């Protein structure tokens, strides 16, 4: 009887002790505020803003709520053209955009996402960034520009369409003199081809074409183009182009802010960036293909593949642009040579190994 009583007393005392410990611990957990980072995106809505939110949510989930990224839409704090300066100065903790949006500081920036096509896609360019010395060269570029930022690259995009025109393009000669919207190093390429280039942010493209300020335009993909309402100002949509045939997001953090984070939080940000590569490609490729069908079947858009004469003219224009800028900027030339070396070996393997997927597609779908 005494042993039973003592056992009950012990269990009761243990339960009280556990409860007391829990009551002491609970306020400490509840009062622990998450580390909050403010990240402005270059997107006001649509699928790319959702991509930015997906990246932020992944960080929030992986950290168990101890690190939180608040996504602010375009122009919330600064204009798109001021985003890099804002994160450099610490006005923003982070930004979600593409390198082409700040290439005016250095044309080499466009090589990290919107550079020449050496027979590779966005997947292989990201391979060069992560495995071929690209990240180290980018960090060297940041140091030379004295920019206080740390950047991560993710989300390999399919090649951008040539874009929307007032008529069907069957030959490169039709493009001569057209007022055409693009950004980054692609502007140099299109100028070399004889176009008159107008650089506009995404939200201004459709109104500009509607008003006649531009004759033709590209943004990035069928989903975003459809969200902008490009089908309301043009019915001629050309897919395939070398002007920006490989691109991905750049997510920049203020370097002091990033270095001040716990090592666990730094690792979470890197892992979240890596994970976005798959999530973006799977989700966005499906959305783009679905919206292309809707543009054709519901919006009456004529979709064409860009003629080879245009693609060949683009490659020749790239040669001229590369040679000119390389002669002016040794670091640009250094990055180009690094990319060529990587692409030559990797694409040699892939081109030899990959079967003709179009042959298989036509076999089943005609």
Describe this structure in a few short sentences.
Helices cover 52% and strands 14% of the residues. The chain is α/β, with parallel strands linked by helices and 366 residues long. Strands 2-1-3-10-4 form a 5-stranded mixed beta sheet. Strands 5-9-11 form a 3-stranded mixed beta sheet, with no helix packed on it.
Describe the SSE topology.
Blueprint: H1 2-30, E1 35-41, H2 46-62, E2 67-72, H3 83-89, E3 94-97, H4 122-131, H5 134-145, E4 149-157, E5 163-165, E6 179-181, H6 185-192, E7 196-198, H7 205-211, E8 216-217, H8 222-228, E9 236-239, E10 247-254, H9 255-259, H10 263-297, E11 302-305, H11 308-328, H12 330-353, H13 357-365
Parallel strand pairs: 1-2, 1-3, 6-7, 6-8, 9-11
Antiparallel strand pairs: 3-10, 4-10, 5-9
Helix pairs in contact: 2-10, 4-5, 6-11, 8-10, 11-12
Note down, in words, how this protein is organized:
The chain has 13 helices and eleven strands. The chain is α/β, with parallel strands linked by helices and 366 residues long. It folds into two domains: 33-157 and 246-285, D-Maltodextrin-Binding Protein, domain 2 (3-Layer(aba) Sandwich), CATH 3.40.190.170; 163-240 and 302-365, D-Maltodextrin-Binding Protein, domain 2 (3-Layer(aba) Sandwich), CATH 3.40.190.10. A five-stranded mixed sheet has the order 2-1-3-10-4. Helix 2 (46-62) links the parallel strand 1 and strand 2. Helix 2 runs antiparallel to helix 10 (263-297). The radius of gyration is 25 Å and the shape is globular. Residues 1-31 have low confidence and may be disordered.
